[in-house]
Amino acid sequence: MRRSSSLIPAVLLPTLVVFLVVSWALRAAEPEPKQRLFRPDAPDMPAYSLPDVLTAIDGRKIATAQDWITIRRPEILELFRQHVYGRVPATEYQKNYRLVRQDPGAMDGAATLKQIEITITATGKSLTIHLALFVPNKPAKPVPTFLLICNRGPENIDPTRKTKSEFWPAEEVIARGYGIAAFHNADVDPDKNDGFKDGIHALLDQGGRAPDAWGTIAAWAWGASRCLDYSRPILGCLANKAWASRRKCPRSASPCMATALTTTSARASTTLRSSTGHATWTLPTECSERPNETQDRGRPPGLWLGAVLPWAALVRSPTWRIAAMRRLLGVLVTTALTLAASAACAQDRPNIVIFHCHDLGQYLHCYGVKTVCTPNFDKFAEQGVRFARSFCTQPGCSASRASLFTGRYPHSNGVMGLTHANFAWDLRPEEKHLAQFLKEAGYATVAVGVVHETRSGTQRCGYEKHIKQAKAAEGTTAAIAELRRLAAAKQPFFLYAGFIEPHRLPYPKDSGPLAGEHGFPGPHLEPDESLGIDVPGYLRGTEGTRQELAGLQGAVRHVDEQFGRWLQTLHELQLESNTLVIATTDHGIAMPRAKCSVYEPGLQVALLLRQAGRPGWHGGVVRKEMVSNIDVLPTVLDLVMIPIPANVQGRSFAPLLDDRPYVANAAIFGELTYHGYYDPQRSIRTETHKLIANFSTAPSFQDPSQQWRPRSDPLVPENPAAAFHPHLELYDLVQDPWEQVNLADKPEHAAVRQYLARRLYQHMVETDDPLLRGAVTPPHHETTLKLLQGGPPGSKGTP
Questions:
Q1: Pick from 227, 136, 139, 137: which is nearest to 173 by CA?
Q2: CA separation for the pair 181, 133 (Å, rounded)
């Protein structure tokens, strides 16, 4: 039987690698000759007004700390993006790193010098950043490293050290046991008023500059991020060697350790960001002197260091800078030692178990549905962590799963509709599935039941074994057998099970009222109204609705019983301490205005998890931060210390559970492109409002009943057969949680609508949403064209 190993000793402190970017002496670009500057208290200062800090855009007063964190702070950060620092453009670029010189005898043998050329290429143009990096030769271990953005003459950062400047006291830093690096700001963007025509702006600013385009300081910080992209893997080799030697395991299997850096200005402006789009950096487990362009970059599993960096443009004294640097070093070392001691308690990589079922939404007793009987899910929530506000990216079966297992939106990973039959959507070849990540990291990978995120087979996803038992009872029996087999091995494992219930199921033609139709709970189950029937506020309380909910409750109760069998087996096998168990679903229940809609009942999903041996990951915790199912993959990778790729769009919430620095999602983005038919919608949900953008005049909602005459009816619209999408829908989720009153055309809500519209559009631009270029063509269309042209049908669109 595989058991968790003992805690790793605290002697792992030498494996700590800290990246601290000290951004000082940044001056603003010289103003135009005719531009006049005013002191804020000057008598001839033009009239201006600043927004009330404690009043939200919609006029609501900020009365609590939670209101500040979830409502007002994101609004203010957006104002900084728009009016102060700007936004980095989404232009694609390529990076190439070349080590042009390495001198292990630098500084009289005290340091190794690396001179690196970082070439950025885009739109047929290129520029080169010249990075100088000194690392102390003793001790041969990871060290905190300072990176300077130099805006003085290049001689101040002379890598030959023939010229030395107190502006960059490299010898003193090396003597104290730290690394030091620098590049010249002009390599990225010249410190002059050139109309943003030179430097990185000439490469990435395409199609004219928007009013909120990035400026010079943001460009310099962007350059610093590219230097960090290089420095991380180079120093990471040392981290892996140190870790592997302590664990007596091969380096290729060793996890990475790192520290994340964040700044207040970075949060506000995209200023200091890694390639992931987040203000964080980490160390990959495999590295070389010339990192691969596609190398994974992600957020660290164990160590975090938050630092508020001074903008020292107003302080010109080099003496002050050295003193400030010394003070920062003291704070850095103290914080790093504290964090490292915590990280040293990391355990062996945990097993990963995901229990997934169709169409569950949040229809569980522990989520407030008092008439559904789910004692096992409820007990699991009491023992683990329940995310009260968890959402999916798309309220469709395949698309939501594709997001769950890739950490990317459906329009990015290619699964914008169903994968089976003639729907024929599929993951793009370059998309990487969670099972692939885990398999490459040495996990055994097994799937049971429904694998609905691809039509290319389970091996494409990285599963070594697939048992095709989709019903919960039979599938659970098979899964328990696999648990016993996997537990007996010494290899960590990933076991996924996807069950069909409580999806609507087909009834035989001779089976009573539902003969020949799809409905709840399925012909092998019985309805359950032992606790009554609670009709949710978006449905009419008709007899048909109540009958369907009773059937749904019977199906959910059956799934709960099977989940109980899983929990009992995990307990018997003593796997609870070192196994992360996740219970979740794809989207809302199959009722009107739920499944297949981007309203709250369609996007809300249950998310429960537990790892009994990890503090913060168990104990009946209820998290109220908004999370999306694209956050699950980076969280799992974070937990098992696999670097998170730059293209992952979700955010790890492992820091939230580990009590590390974490900024909650200020907005959740939803979408629908295809399910039963083309119905393109995009949505943004904040703490208080939701905006839905409809890109076609389709019916007001897709009916998920799979019945010609649906038995359940929504409250809104009154006549679904004659109701169609407006362009925009805006809902006040505080006053109208069931989204019954569309405020999009109300003048008093214009400011909120415009604010959310800008944010939603920016999200579409940043994620390269195909709707920006017009209607999305389905695979079925491609196959039909081939048939008309007389060719053989392709793999897409053919049953």
A1: 136
A2: 4
What tokens appear for 713 in the block? 């009816």
pLDDT confidence band for 671 (50 / 70 / 90): very high
Q: What is the DSSP string of 62-111?
A: --SHHHIIIIIHHHHHHHHIIIII-B------EEEEEEEEEEEEHHHHTE
Among 552, 624, 546, which Cα is nearest to 588's? 552
Residue 610's nearest CA partner among 363, 382, 293, 342 is 382
What is the C-alpha to C-alpha distance for residues 152 and 200, in angstroms, rounded to an integer?
Answer: 19
Q: Give the 3-state secondary structure of residue 402.
A: helix
Q: What is the pLDDT of residues 504-529, one digit of tens each?
A: 999 998 878 888 899 999 999 999 99
CB 177 within 8 A of CB 210: no
3-state secondary structure of 467: strand
Q: How far apart are CA 116 and CA 247, in angstroms?
A: 32
CA angle 665, 667, 672 (to 5 degrees): 125
pLDDT tens for 593-645 read: 999 999 999 999 999 999 999 999 999 999 999 999 999 999 999 999 999 99
φ, ψ (nearest 5 deg) of residue 74: -60, -35
Residue 128: pLDDT band with limits 50, 70, 90 = very high
**pLDDT the model gives residue 676:** 92
Residue with tokens 């648990």: 483
Residue 152 phi, psi dihedral angles, 5° rounding: -100, -170
- Helix or strand or coil: residue 407? coil
User: 3-state class of 156 per DSSP?
Assistant: helix
The per-residue pLDDT for 232 is 52
DSSP states along 622-666: EE-S-EEGGGHHHHHHHHTT-PPPTT--S---HHHHTT------S
State pLDDT tens for residues 457-505.
Answer: 999 999 999 999 999 999 999 999 999 999 999 899 999 999 999 999 9
Q: Where are the beta strands (DSSP E) in 305-427?
A: 351-357, 385-387, 390-391
Strand, coil or helix: 516 = coil
Helices (H) and strands (E) in the chain, counts: 20, 24
Q: Which helix (H) or strand (E) holds 546?
A: helix 543-572
The helix-helix angle for 632-639 and 397-406 (nearest 10°) equals: 30
Angle between helices 543-572 and 375-383 (to 10 degrees): 50
Dist CA 616 CA 625 (whole Å) = 15
Mean pLDDT of 786-792: 88
